Amino acid sequence: MSEAAAARFDSPESPPLLALSGIVVEFPGVKALRGVDLDVRAGSVHGLMGENGAGKSTLLKVMSGVNIPRSGTIRVDGQELSFRGAADALEAGIAIIYQELHLVPGLSAAENLMLGQLPSRMGLIDRKALRARAEAVLRDLGEDIDPSTPVGRLSIGQRQMVEIGKALLREARIIAFDEPTSSLSAREVENLKRIVRRLRDEGRAIVYVTHRMAELFELCDAVTVFRDGARVAHHPTMETVTQDRLVTEMVGRAIEDIYGWSPRPVGEVVAAIDGLTGPGLRAPVSFNVRAGEIVGFFGLVGAGRTELMRLLCGTERATGGSVTLRGKALRMGSPRRAIEAGIAMCPEDRKREGIFPIASVNDNINISVRRRYARAGLVDFAREKQNAIRAIRDLDVRTASGETQIRTLSGGNQQKAILGRWLSEKIELFVLDEPTRGIDVGARAQIYKILYDLAEKGIGVIVVSSDLPEVSSICDRVLVMADGRLTADVPRDEITPERLLGHALPQ
Ligand SMILES: Nc1ncnc2c1ncn2[C@@H]1O[C@H](COP(=O)(O)OP(=O)(O)OP(=O)(O)O)[C@@H](O)[C@H]1O
Ligand SMILES: [Mg+2]
């Protein structure tokens, strides 16, 4: 925070705009928050960090009146409030921009904004004036949003701006963001940062949850670290904090090198992709993946990487070209045949394609092996259970039990459970699309280790990632895509950020 801003909005003597103290939240079998304190000052961005399942999202839901704490107090401007539901928190000027956005897809951007107005006030407000204000707010947020576009047709970044717009129309003074950049393009990230800084400079109190260190240091004025439902560290200024120190506080131990790559023997070609064409590709794509090789796919959002992987895994129909697995031509266009041939896929959008939300963690893990473990048409529950126990242990999935509904797990733990699906399968090629999005550093290191182990066994691995340090550090080779085309094939010892980015920018 600039000094001028500090002087204008806050002084150390004045109470913090938002003060949570002794917050306890329990779910059946889980103590999500064990008496947590958090002070957030006006005119500052307060970062929250912590492992997957540490309780960050839960705390935000306490601030927004969605989770009602068993004990603890919430003060806004020094005044104690008790929230009975989301409306009370809104009334108190608190808005949350959630990990999953909550807009109505069929309504236009402007209509969604207007929905944000409290219904009781609706009758008294001139709709026309309201629409004009909604449009002005949208214009102001950048991202070039046509107010009459149905929200379902907006990009994730634009939808997020509509959410922020809703908060602004309600004149929220406290705005909390839950991993807001995890699905944004590079340009959208820049716009979001600009908006966050502006909201701060206007004197609002911002709470900012992120797993991305660089972002934390760029944006935040203070940081609080959570572990296992408790606050383990608080740094009122970023000046005395280092990245290593935060990692240690988060995971409870030092991690020397989260990437931990070492050279590995590479064998025969496992998968040969030749002249593949189809939706999302603007030129035929050819490449090979060898046994024991980890091949990265880098590119900007929209470069065609996810589309390429969907063609490869049969979830989208190719219009031409071939895929050969261990010398055998794959009959394309069917995910089932791809799985039977030994291709495993961990999709990018776990909400839509990855999980069965109301099914248990065990069932979500076993979904791919069900046929194998079913003897004579009967499900072998004992073996399935063993399989799930092993996956939960190997991936350190934090869940009360295997029977818990997967939707109640924290975002990162859902992702780990889905990865666990494939560990007991016989696979030749493992395709992972943004596998560490929303994953904490400790769990990332575990996931990388699992990928190295799989590669060591002779499996070919493809990792689609927009995280430059990640692709540069864990891959043996990086293919770059831009604009629906393959633009470069860079061996490990030639990888530099400039080179990858240079090939990723549309020509
Ligand atoms: N509705 C719920 N029912 C049961 N348990 C829940 C529910 N919501 C959260 N939990 C549990 O509370 C704990 C904290 O979860 P939370 O989502 O707050 O973690 P997080 O810090 O946001 O993690 P991530 O970085 O993965 O998003 C987890 O153990 C989670 O499984
Ligand atoms: Mg969360």
From TrEMBL:
Q: Does the keyword Nucleotide-binding apply?
A: yes
Which Pfam families does the UniProt entry name for this protein?
Answer: ABC_tran
Which InterPro entries does this one have? Answer: AAA+_ATPase (IPR003593), ABC_carbohydrate_import_ATPase (IPR050107), ABC_transporter-like_ATP-bd (IPR003439), ABC_transporter-like_CS (IPR017871), P-loop_NTPase (IPR027417)
The chain positions of domain ABC transporter read 18-253, 264-504
Q: Does S-adenosyl-L-methionine count among this protein's keywords?
A: no
> Which keywords describe this protein according to UniProt?
ATP-binding, Cell inner membrane, Cell membrane, Membrane, Nucleotide-binding, Repeat, Sugar transport, Translocase, Transport
Q: Which domain of life is it from?
A: Bacteria
User: Entry's SMART domains?
Assistant: AAA
Gene Ontology MF: a single term: ATP binding
Show the NCBIfam families listed in the entry. Answer: PRK11288.1
| Protein name in UniProt | L-arabinose ABC transporter ATP-binding protein AraG
- Origin organism is Endosaccharibacter trunci
Give me the gene this protein comes from: araG
